[in-house]
Amino acid sequence: MPSITVTMNVTLDGVVQSPGRPDEDTRGGFTYGGWGQGYWDEVMAREMGVGMSTPGGMLLGRRTWQDFRTVWGKATDDNPFSTHMNAATKYVVSRTLKDVDAWQNSVLLHGDAVATVAELKAQSDQNLSIIGSASLVRTLHAAGLIDQYTLLIHPLALGSGSLLFEDPAPRAGFELTRSVATTTGVIIARYIRR
Hints:
Strand order of the largest sheet: 4-3-2-5-1-6-8-7
Organism: Amycolatopsis taiwanensis
Pfam families: RibD_C (PF01872)
Protein name: Deaminase
Oligomer: single chain
Structural class: alpha/beta
Distance between the termini: 15 Å
Number of strands: 8
Low-confidence stretches: none
CATH class: Alpha Beta
CATH topology: Dihydrofolate Reductase, subunit A
CATH architecture: 3-Layer(aba) Sandwich
GO molecular function: 5-amino-6-(5-phosphoribosylamino)uracil reductase activity
GO biological process, one term: riboflavin biosynthetic process
Shape: globular
Strand content: 25-35%
């Protein structure tokens, strides 16, 4: 059976909200958007490139798909991330979207997230990755559907914002399979579920 891997930027205190831009996600009055900027280096580029070079589809929640579509869906450069995002099959988990025709290779998974993703995972012959989509990750984690986490742990604490695990999450053990520190102090850690 294929695996589901999550890649997530996270602060030392567990915040995952809006690492990319100040306007990315301001829900709850969050004012620290863009906190992940300034940490990119060659080590991070290489490590993220490994994930992007692995074949498979992507799972995205509605908000992340809409945001990524705006950023990556219009990219015309030869950046390997743009190439990967546009070429990958993007499975969009949403109860509210009517269609996902606005970004090529997008497939709508309408209905209950756990049921639709479990069915996709059981029937698919390819691994699936999730970048961001914290709400979807929490739901799938609680259902035991996440197999691996790649956490980019940033050396800062914000004291507020949406956390990786906000609701009581089921107990789960993980094994560290790889870790590397960037020149900017980010620890990239890969864990597989035991």
